[in-house]
């Protein structure tokens, strides 16, 4: 076991870094802690940027997760507006090179540089927004209330959350999606249809199988043309077509990159191939011991957990058993949550009422739950998570029966 | 009893038996929604509205002795209301069970 490092430098100031830094201090790490953030804002949460922050229901204070007073109290050096360029070896440790020539010496480095919005070529203009950072959200939040109609390209989580927030503000929305249904891979066909229906019921003009051919800004707004010749006019365009890893720092530092998923290859404890250098969050392609494959995930909860994994690894603490993947989205006053992986060929068993938007859909294969999608049923998620991680055999009828307590379906009831 | 608790105006909210099956129940005291939880043989009371995003805790679950919010799966210590790995604290109310009836202090406890 290597000794606890004296200096840890985190490159990137998002969720993974904040989680690592908070846990390090909470568990008594007494060394030097430096956080390098390229943006000028103190670390903030991204999930609200397409939801309550965008709608104006939350402000900067609500989304900030590591403020200067906390950093002062906990002796964390927060260097904002600071770009790190690469790491080089420095004896047994590392030298972190900053833009402008300054250097920091570190025993351990956490690479948590995240991802950025994927751009559509040629789509640039003051009425076009790629939503990723707080500055993007501020721009959209200023423009949105003045818009009568917006166009959204992409009906993934961010695109559909923006659509929902816009509808909440009374703005008309046309959403163009390339696939046949939204979130098809994550939700499977049956629930992706329910998800599409939810948006349509709330007034989103949702169009599938649309390839965007061109985007032009005019004097009064934006014109989007699809490959089939359809024309969509709007006051504002939001592009939400996925993200690409911010891997420049990792590449310049010689860290091995996942050729398939992109991002920095790390083991189960988030260690890169270079001793003392970790990667976590959206940038990390992490070895999954259950499947023997590397997986890169772009969700906030994943970043939090990986940050905690890094903190425990640095402190030599044991790692707890891994919970199944989980993400949430709040849309139209509904809390949506997904746990596990749907995968193909699942049987979907519904508990509750799809029509009332109050249900949990369980995804089963061979009589075992491997994923669940809860619509305003977050109370079922605990049991779903346990059913998934234990692989408990369950009867479909029992899952669907509201009078059965889900926790009673577990092998050992230790609630 | 301390002098403070002697001045508590306990409000009867529900028979204990109503908590036995689901282990949780939402009640209203003086216009305030309160969530009751039965953990082992003890009853705990929280403000029902989660400090995080305002979801109803009584629609959540109990897991390993913790209250789990249905909104974003924050977990709370039933005794103190403290959220795991967060700076926030859910308001808690003192509870007294007399003759099988759950009583709640309408005023949240001051945590020092």
Summarize the structure.
The complex is a heterodimer of chains A (415) and B (112). Chain A contains eleven helices and 26 strands.
Describe the 3D structure:
The complex is a heterodimer of chains A (415) and B (112). Chain A contains 11 helices and 26 strands. Chain A is of the alpha/beta class. Chain A folds into 3 domains: 7-116 and 244-315, FAD/NAD(P)-binding domain (3-Layer(bba) Sandwich); 119-241, FAD/NAD(P)-binding domain (3-Layer(bba) Sandwich), CATH 3.50.50.60; 333-414, FAD/NAD-linked reductase, C-terminal dimerisation domain (Enolase-like, domain 1), CATH 3.30.390.30. In chain A, the strands form 7 sheets. Chain A has a 5-stranded parallel sheet. Chain A has a 5-stranded parallel sheet with strand order 9-16-10-11-12. In chain A, strand 4 and strand 5 form a beta hairpin. The model of chain A has no long low-confidence stretch (mean pLDDT 94). Chain B contains 2 helices and 10 strands. Chain B is mainly beta and 112 residues long. Chain B has one domain: Rieske Iron-sulfur Protein. Chain B has a 4-stranded antiparallel sheet. A 3-stranded antiparallel sheet of chain B has the order 1-10-9. The two termini of chain B are 19 Å apart. Classes of the chains: A alpha/beta (415), B mainly beta (112). Chains A and B meet through strand 22 and helix 10 of A and strand 5 of B.
State the largest interface: A-B, 20 and 18 residues
Strand content of chain A is 25-35%
- Shape-level CATH architecture of the largest domain in chain A: 3-Layer(bba) Sandwich
Which structural class fits the helix and strand makeup of chain A? alpha/beta
**How many angstroms does the end-to-end distance of chain B come to?**
19 Å
Domain Reductase C-terminal (chain A): 326-409
Domain FAD/NAD(P)-binding (chain A): 7-307
Keywords (chain A): FAD, Flavoprotein, Oxidoreductase
Protein name (chain A): NAD(P)/FAD-dependent oxidoreductase
């Amino acid at each position: 076991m290597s000794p606890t490092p004296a200096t840890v430098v985190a490159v990137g100031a998002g969720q993974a870094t904040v989680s690592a830094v908070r846990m390090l201090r909470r568990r008594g790490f007494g060394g030097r802690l430096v956080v390098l953030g390229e943006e000028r804002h103190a670390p903030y949460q991204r999930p609200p940027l397409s939801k309550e922050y965008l709608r104006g229901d939350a402000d900067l204070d609500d989304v900030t997760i590591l403020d200067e007073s906390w950093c002062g109290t906990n002796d964390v050096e927060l260097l904002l507006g600071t770009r790190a360029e690469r790491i080089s070896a420095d004896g047994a440790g590392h030298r972190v090179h900053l833009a402008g020539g300054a250097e920091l010496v570190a025993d351990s480095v956490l690479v948590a540089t995240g991802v950025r919005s994927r751009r559509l070529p040629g789509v640039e203009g003051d009425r076009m927004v790629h939503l990723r950072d707080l500055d993007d959200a501020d721009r959209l939040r200023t423009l949105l209330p003045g818009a009568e109609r917006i166009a959204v390209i992409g009906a993934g989580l961010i695109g559909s959350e923006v659509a929902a927030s816009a509808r909440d503000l009374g703005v008309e929305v046309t959403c163009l999606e390339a696939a046949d249904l939204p979130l098809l891979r994550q939700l499977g066909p049956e629930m992706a249809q329910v998800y599409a229906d939810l948006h349509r019921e709330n007034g989103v003009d949702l169009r599938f199988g649309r390839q965007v051919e061109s985007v032009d800004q005019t004097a009064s707004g934006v014109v989007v043309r699809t490959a089939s010749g359809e024309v969509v006019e709007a006051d504002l365009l939001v592009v939400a077509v996925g993200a690409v890893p911010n891997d420049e720092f990792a590449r310049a530092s010689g860290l091995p990159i996942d050729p398939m998923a992109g991002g920095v290859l790390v083991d189960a404890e988030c260690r890169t191939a270079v001793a003392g250098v970790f990667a976590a969050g959206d940038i990390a392609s992490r070895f999954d011991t259950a499947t023997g494959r590397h997986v890169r995930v772009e969700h906030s909860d994943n970043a939090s957990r990986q940050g905690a994994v890094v903190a425990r690894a640095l402190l030599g603490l044991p790692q707890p058993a891994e919970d199944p993947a989980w993400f949430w989205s709040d849309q139209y006053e509904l809390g949506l949550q997904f746990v596990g992986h749907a995968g193909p060929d699942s049987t979907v068993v519904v508990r509750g009422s799809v029509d009332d938007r109050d249900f949990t859909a369980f995804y089963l294969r061979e009589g075992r739950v491997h994923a669940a999608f809860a619509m305003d049923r977050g109370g079922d998620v605990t049991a779903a998570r346990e059913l998934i991680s234990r692989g408990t055999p369950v009867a479909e009828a029992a899952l669907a029966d509201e009078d059965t307590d889900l926790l009673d379906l577990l092998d050992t009831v230790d609630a | 009893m301390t002098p403070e608790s002697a001045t508590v105006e306990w409000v009867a909210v529900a028979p204990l038996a109503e908590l036995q099956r689901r282990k949780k129940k939402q009640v209203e005291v003086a216009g305030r929604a309160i969530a009751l939880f039965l953990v082992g043989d003890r009853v705990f009371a929280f403000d029902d509205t989660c400090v995080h995003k305002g979801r109803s805790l009584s629609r959540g679950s109990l897991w390993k002795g913790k209250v789990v919010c249905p909104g974003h799966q924050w977990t709370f210590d039933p005794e103190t209301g403290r959220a795991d790995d967060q700076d926030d604290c859910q308001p808690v109310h003192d509870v007294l069970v007399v003759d099988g009836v759950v009583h709640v202090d309408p005023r949240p406890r001051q945590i020092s």
